[in-house]
Model the fold of this input.
Amino acid sequence: MEIGECRSESENLENTIAGLETHWAKRTEERNRYLQQLKRDHKQTITNLKRKVATLEDRAFEQARTFEAENRRCYDLLAQMEVEIQQWQNQHLQDSRVLKARNDQIERLHIEKRQTRDKIKTIAHAIIRRCLQCEDMTRTTFFSAVMIYVKQTMYELEQLERDLASKPAARPNDAPRAPIFKVLIYL
Done:
């Protein structure tokens, strides 16, 4: 090869190398701009995501606080309901005791009623026997005997009434004297 050709080729090579370097520099600059744009976009995306995460964290925190407040309120209501249930159970127990005492009193009254009825029958039978024994009893004597037995019966009935009136309704010893009421406030 000749020197001229070599120079020409060398110049072509240098031109080609210079063109490649220019092209390379241009492409590198474009690539650097593209990378800078990607970095800015990435930073912007990260910033937006951080903002969204912060918003979500604030919402989650607020929801957690609300849930905790509701949970506390529910537990307070449950505690109040347990107190009410206990009060109703105590009231039921007290009412059951009073009812049992009243039932016992009613049973005693029925027994006393039967006893009084038996006494009256006994007196009536005694009057009848008396009348049968004394066939020659005059009408006045008969009515006077009947009046004596009636007075005796009335006296025994009055005595029974006094006995019953002096006995107040029996209340169990362990039953409270008055019901206890408490006001419960629901929030």
